[in-house]
Amino acid sequence: MLLDVVLQSFDIFFQNPVLFGVAVVAVAVGIVLGALPGVSSTMALAILLPLTFGMEPEVAIMLLLMVLVASVFGGSVSAILLNIPGTPGAIVTQFDGYPMAQQGKAGRALGHALIASTVGGVLGVFALMLIAPLIAKSAMNFRSPEFALLALFGLVLLAYAANGTMLAGLLSGAIGLIFGMVGFDTVTGVARFDFGTAVLQNGIHIIPVTIGIFGITEVLGTLAASRSGPLPKVPPIGKLFPTVADLARVAPTWVRGSVIGTFIGAIPAAGSAIAVAVAYTVEQRLSRGTKYIFGKGEPRGVAAPEAANSALTGGATIPMITLGIPGDPMTAILIGALIIHGLQPGPMMFTENPEIIGAIYGSIMLAVLLTFAVGMVCLRGIVQVMKLPTHIMMVLITLLCMVGAFAIRNSISDLVMMLVLGGMGYVMTVLRIPVAPLVFGLILGPLMEENMRRSLIISRGSWSVFLERPVSLAIIALIILVIGSSLWPRKKRKPDA
Asked: What's the DSSP call for residue 296?
C-alpha cells in the first residue's frame, strides 16, 4: 500500500514532461543556491516558497523538497572548492574536502560528496517510510494536553539546540509566541496586539516572517562579511568520479554516516551541525592507526558528514509529518507551506491526506536521484555560477524576497513587515540571539495556545489536566530534563569562580 502511494507520486512527474523538466530545474537551482556562500538551504526555501502558492499541495511540497535535498548537497561544493560552507551542514565537509581540492583532487572530493549524499538520502527515505507510520499511530492517542505540552517541548528543544545560550533561545521563541497571538482571538473574537491598526487584525503571516528572518537577515550578514575581502578563486575540478578502490574503502562510511544522520535528524532541533560532527568523529575513532590523516584530504572525512547531512533530511521530516513539530529550520518552512495549502502536519495526515505523505516520500527519493544525475552531468557548469560577484547575487536574492513577500496577499504591509523583520533578525544575530526559535514560536505558538485553552476549558480551569495522563507527565519530565541540563554546567563551574 505504502509503495503504491510512493509510485503514484512518481507518476505525477513522469506523466507530465513539463513538470518533470521543472523538477530537474528545481534540483539545479537548489544545487546552485546551496553552493553560493551565504545562501543556506533554509534561505533557498524561504525565497522560493512564494512561487508555489498557485500549485497543487502535492506539487508544491514536491518542488520544495527538490530544492531542499539539492541545496543540502550544494553546500558541500563551496566548502570543498572555496573552504566556505554553503550550508551549516557542510561545515565539517571542508575539513578534508578543501585539502583535497588544494592537492588537485577537487573533482574526486566532489564525487565522494555526491555519492555519499545520494546513499545517505536513499537510506534516510527508507528510514522515514518505516518509522513515521509507527510514530503517527502512537500519536493518534494524543489529546489536547499532550499536543500543548508537545509544542512546548519542541520549543524548549529548539531553544536548547540553537546557537547561543538557552536563555537567548527562549527569548527568541517567546517573541515568536507573541507574534503568533497577534490578530483576532479564535475563541473570543477579540483583537489582540493590533495597536488599533487594521493591518495587524488578520495576524502576522508566516511567509513575511520566514522570508525576512531567513532571507533578508542572511543577505545583510553576507554583505557585511563580504566587506572583509573577496572570495578565493574557484580551483579547477579535474576528474569527477573517484576510483573503484576509493569507493570500496569508503562504502562502510556511507552506511555509518547515514544511520547517524537519520537518528539525529529524527530528534527535533538536533540539527545538521550535530549530525555531521558526530559522523566525522565516529570515523576518526574507528580509523585507529590512520586517525591522523583526517583533516589532510581523507575521502572518508568528506563521505561521513555528507552521508549524515543528506540522511538527516529524511530523519528531520519524521517529527514534521508525525507530530507537527519542525525538526530544523528547513522543515519549519515546509510546515508553513503545508499550512498555506490548508494542511495541518501531524498524525491525522496519515488518514486524511495519505497522498501528501506519499508525495513527501516519493519526492525526497526522486530528489536524491535527480541530484545525483544533475550533479554528474551539470556540476562543472554549476560551479561557474559561483564566480558571480557576491553583491550581484545578494541584490537578485533581495528582489526575489521582496516579490515573494508581496505576492502572498498583494499587500505592501507584508513587504514592510518582511523588511523590518529582516533588519530585526540581523540585529539579533549581531547580539548572538538565535533567530530560528522565533519562527518556530510563530508556528508552534497557535498550536500550543489552542490545545492549552481547550484543555483548560474541558477541565474547567484546572491545571491538573496536564498531570493526569502518563504521556503528559513524561513530556513534562523531558522538558524539565532539557532545561536542567542547560543549567547544570553553569552550576558545576561556580566553585571555580
From this structure: S
